[in-house]
Design a protein that fits this description.
Layout lengths: L4 H13 L3 H13 L6 H14 L2 H13 L6 H13 L3 H11 L1
């Protein structure tokens, strides 16, 4: 089966929902290195996986990586990134994300 955006998004999302956040991050890394087009769903699911794993720094890196890859963030992206910061007690970072979104 050839990898594509929809398949990658579905598998990353399934890993995130199954609390397999490390697997989601590993799959994201593979997706990033391949020719698969990244989209907001790819990032949203991976950032949500970071939330489950308490990986707030990785979540912020992913948020920045969206811009580098010309992928437009949305309310889901910002909400997930703010949530991971909130759960880690990183209120300053959460506030910065809110300002980006506003």
């Amino acid at each position: 089966v050839e990898a594509n955006t929809i398949v990658s998004d579905a598998v990353i999302s399934a890993c995130e929902k199954g609390n397999k956040w490390r697997a989601a991050l590993d799959l994201f890394a593979v997706t990033l290195q391949s020719n698969v087009k990244l989209d907001p769903v790819t990032f949203n699911a991976t950032i949500s996986a970071c939330e489950r794993g308490g990986e707030w720094e990785k979540a912020l890196q992913l948020f920045c990586l969206m811009e580098q890859n010309a992928v437009q963030f949305n309310a889901i992206t910002c909400s997930a990134a703010i949530s991971v910061c909130e759960k880690a007690g990183k209120w300053k970072e959460a506030l910065q994300l809110y300002r980006v979104m506003a």
